[in-house]
Automatic annotation (TrEMBL):
<feature type="signal peptide">
    <location>
        <begin position="1"/>
        <end position="26"/>
    </location>
</feature>
<dbReference type="InterPro" id="IPR051099">
    <property type="entry name" value="AGR/TXD"/>
</dbReference>
<dbReference type="InterPro" id="IPR036249">
    <property type="entry name" value="Thioredoxin-like_sf"/>
</dbReference>
<dbReference type="InterPro" id="IPR004879">
    <property type="entry name" value="Ssp411-like_TRX"/>
</dbReference>
<dbReference type="InterPro" id="IPR013766">
    <property type="entry name" value="Thioredoxin_domain"/>
</dbReference>
<feature type="domain" description="Thioredoxin">
    <location>
        <begin position="18"/>
        <end position="138"/>
    </location>
</feature>
<protein>
    <submittedName>
        <fullName>Thioredoxin domain-containing protein</fullName>
    </submittedName>
</protein>
<dbReference type="Pfam" id="PF03190">
    <property type="entry name" value="Thioredox_DsbH"/>
</dbReference>
<keyword id="KW-0732">Signal</keyword>
Length: 233
């Protein structure tokens, strides 16, 4: 075989090996072993936990790993919808004792906050496990507070701009103060400060602000008079 042919064959062999490795990994459950970290991940993603209690010498645990947990439908369901966790009762038996688990394997499905939704002791085939998983409510991810803050600051700036364009400068300054107080380091707050400076630095715009204040005071006075309250001349 020529050197070029040898190189081509070698490259194809390596590529095939990488493909096979990737395919094998894709057909494996992404088990977590740190329960504390797994619960934190569950809270962040809103996905329920699947706890698999077992130990090294458990025959039915090994069979579950070799058969049911290798099925593509099970692998996909667990990796996409759950946070799967392996709990070795020989290494960490406190949890199983606290839950009263005495036979293995035992599968426990729990919400992110730790509430047990379902539990099964003993071996399960693919059909049985998929039936168990189908009874679990869909994940409900918590809103991202950073994304929510960004969305809210953009909406506040949009209202600020509308008031500015309609020359409602008093409302504009009020919204600008609120925006800067809640999101002082945001891009929206910087833009609000720039527009507010254009209002306070322009005599005509500032005069309009004072006029709007007088209008508001007059409106308040009329409302007090209508309610029978004191009105100063």
């Amino acid at each position: 075989m020529s050197r070029a042919g040898f190189v081509v064959v070698s490259v194809l062999t390596v590529a095939a090996g990488l493909f096979a490795t990737g395919e094998a990994r894709a057909q494996e459950v992404n088990w977590r072993t740190d329960l504390t970290a797994a619960r934190k991940e569950a809270v962040q993603t809103g996905r329920p936990l699947l706890l698999d209690f077992g130990f090294e010498g458990c025959v039915w645990c090994r069979k579950l790993d070799a058969t049911t947990f290798r099925a593509p439908t099970v692998v996909a369901a667990l990796n996409e919808r759950f946070i799967p966790v392996k709990v070795d009762v020989e290494q960490d038996g406190e949890i199983s004792r606290a839950m009263g688990i005495k036979s293995f394997p035992t599968l426990v499905v729990a919400t992110p906050d730790g509430k047990v939704v379902d539990q099964h002791s003993g071996y399960m085939d693919v059909r049985q496990l998929m039936a168990l998983l189908s009874r679990v409510p869909a994940a409900q991810a918590k809103p991202d507070p950073v994304a929510m803050s960004a969305s809210e600051s953009r909406e506040m700036l949009a209202r600020f701009r509308r008031d500015y364009e309609s020359q409602n400068y008093l409302a504009c300054l009020t919204k600008g103060d609120e925006l800067q107080a809640r999101f002082p380091n945001s891009t929206e707050a910087r833009e609000a400060r720039t527009l507010a400076g254009k209002i306070t630095g322009d005599p005509d715009k500032w005069q309009r602000v004072l006029g709007q204040i007088d209008e508001n005071l007059a409106t308040i006075g009329k409302e007090l008079a209508a309610d029978g309250g004191p009105v100063r001349p």
